[in-house]
Amino acid sequence: MATGRDVAERAGTSTAVVSYVFNNGPRNVSPATRERVLRAAAELNYRPNALARALSAGKTLSVGLIVPDIANPYFGEVSRALETAATARGRLLLIADSAGSEEQELQQLSSFIERRVDGIVLVSVSDDPQLGFVAEAGIPIVALHPLDLDQPASSLTIDYDHAAEEATQHLVGHGYRTIGLLNGPTDSAGSRQHAAGFTRAILRSPGVQASERRSETSRGDAARVALQWLASGDRPRAIYVATDEQAFGVLYAAAELGLHVPDDVAVVGFDGTAHSRYAVPSLSTVQQPIPELATRAIEVLIAAEDAHVHETLPHRFVARRSCGWHAEVAG
């Protein structure tokens, strides 16, 4: 592999001049000399070391991403969108899976600090993640979910609270009088907002009874909880679920028990993954603007401004068969 010294020898210049050409400075190079250097580089198939150039500028041109479960379709879609956005800005995306463990999440944050990434995108397992040591290391971090404003990090999110209220109110509008909430773990990111929005919709709906269960953010554990819930005497007529992944578990449980969705139990999810369209029946859901979240996250990290950014992006409620929408339209 050709080096900068090889190029310099062929072009009859110094290695410093080769560096000036490929780094656009800091000193000017005459047009004739620049042409000789570029011609020599082409003949030798020389490629400058991007990492070395980045390190000389105090950058690694890399961004870290931490998600709780890369097998979850939502996090897979987030990862792909961030990869696209990062590549478009000349950055390499490094992906870490915390496996739902707060301890592992902290280890991965430390690992990204050691690798000198230029910024971190975080989907935390915790409602209140420990981020102070990341800020002390001088690495900007963006969370893709609600984050308390006293955290030393930026956040890009939809309004979980309002989205939960909207989804629950949609179920109320169908005339369902018993509505359940299947939330994530008590201390999981967004769980407070899901509960708050759900409760507000119920309080605005006289005569509607509410119940709540919690499961891990996985279709397996959601199925386990839903099998018990749907087989009990207090089975709700409709369920608002905090994630699509858990909603898939509810659909599975209903099928196992011989219940029909939405005729026996209506279901609404949250996240709006591509998989939700192809569930059986198709899943009504709150759709997050994944491409927009990803693009904006990379922009915020590259800007690396001192002031933290807290932005709320628009969401969209998508009504499909699982909530009874098509049956209602069909009469």
H/E topology pattern: HHHHEHEHEHEEHEHEHEHEHEHEEH
Our count of domains comes out at 3
User: Pairing-aware structural class of the strands and helices?
Assistant: alpha/beta
Helix content: 40-55%
Rg from Cα? 25 Å
Approximately what portion of the residues adopt beta-strand conformation?
15-25%
Spans of at least 5 consecutive residues whose pLDDT stays below 50 are 327-331
Number of DSSP E strands: 12
| CATH class category of the largest domain | Alpha Beta
Mean pLDDT: 91
CATH H-level superfamily title of the largest domain: Response regulator
CATH architectural category of the largest domain:
3-Layer(aba) Sandwich
Strand order of the largest sheet: 2-1-3-4-5-11
- Quick one: biggest sheet? 6 strands, parallel
CATH fold topology of the largest domain: Rossmann fold
First-residue to last-residue Cα separation = 71 Å
Molecular shape: elongated
Per DSSP, the total helix count is 14
